[in-house]
Design brief:
Order of helices and strands: HHHHHHHEHHEHHEHEHEEH
Strand order of the largest sheet: 1-2-3-4-5-6
Strand content: 5-15%
Number of helices: 14
């Protein structure tokens, strides 16, 4: 088959299929991008679909500056007004232009991981100006970090990135930023396949309800859903609203095949939903089944669970 494609002049298609196997192998993809223009054009989108995963094993506290400078490549796409603001924060040495529209390639968005990278990048940039700089969480530094965070999300949206995996970990300083921007752009997350919800215990769970409602109305292609614990949240009215929105989100999905529950099992969210005919995997993490009622009723309606 491969030989026939070569003889038929379909080498680009064949190369594309081969390079797909190097996804997440940053070193190999980087080498591929240096071979030729064709190889570069095929490798670059894969290199930039999840750049925030470049640091393995969550070793975020020893990130080397050269590994996070890709943030500056994104900032080239700032509009003129935001570039002026960036200059006011002391950043004026961005690359003048780029060969590719890098922001359009991103497919994985981890809200917490982006904030970690930005904080490390801010420290690295400031240390270049002042080697004794340490990140003091004063108003000026926090405003700078928040500005970069908001700018990156805006850049992704404005350059028509289509997110495949959306990992929402609440950070009280930044969740409002991404929530506001996402709610203004249905195309940005309308095709997500994997949704992770992980609010911190200090998080007011009601804050995520508008996002859940938005997803229910604009996204019905989720295949994997990861649902957090909510037993730390004591406001019964807010919790009822959250469970209602979560249930609506599940019911709106057409191809949901996998759900993971942390600590709590809101079984009613599964009843009378489309996923009864598509769900193949349910993962329970630290669930106390003594307090779960109607379990049989739920599982009797699930037709395609893996044995």
């Amino acid at each position: 088959m491969a030989c026939s494609k070569i003889f038929l002049g379909e080498l680009p298609e064949l190369l594309s299929e081969i390079i797909q196997y190097f996804r997440s192998d940053f070193s190999t993809l980087h080498s591929c991008s240096l071979v030729s223009r064709l190889w570069c054009r095929l490798a670059i989108p894969l290199l930039w679909e999840n750049p925030f995963s470049i640091i393995p094993n969550k070793n975020y506290y020893s990130i080397e500056y050269h590994k996070i400078r890709f943030i500056e490549t994104y900032l080239v796409k700032l509009n003129d007004n935001d570039k002026i603001k960036l200059y006011e924060f002391g950043i004026n040495n961005l690359t003048p232009n780029t060969l590719f529209n890098y922001p359009s390639f991103i497919q994985y968005l981890d809200t917490r991981l982006i904030s970690v990278f930005i904080e490390k990048w801010v420290v690295a940039v400031k240390k270049n100006e002042n080697p004794s700089f340490t990140l003091i969480r004063n108003t000026q530094n926090l405003d700078f970090i928040k500005f970069i965070y908001k700018s990156l999300i805006k850049i992704f949206i404005e350059n028509e990135a289509i997110i495949h995996t959306f990992d929402v970990k609440n950070r009280h300083k930044y969740f409002d930023v991404i929530s506001e921007l996402v709610l203004q752009s249905s195309n940005f997350i309308c095709n997500i396949k994997n949704l992770y919800l992980e609010p911190y215990y200090s998080f007011k769970i009601g804050n995520i309800n508008p996002l859940l409602k938005f997803l229910s109305s604009n996204c019905n292609s989720i295949s994997s859903l990861y649902i957090p614990s909510f037993n730390k949240h004591k406001d019964s009215n807010t919790l009822i609203e959250y469970l209602s929105q979560l249930s609506q989100l599940i019911k709106s999905q057409k191809n949901l095949s996998k759900i993971l529950f942390f600590y709590d099992f809101p079984h009613l969210t599964l009843l009378n939903s489309n996923c009864l005919n598509t769900l193949t995997t349910i993962i329970f993490y630290n669930i106390d089944f003594k307090n779960v009622n109607f379990l049989n009723e739920v599982f009797e309606q699930l037709n395609h669970l893996c044995q």
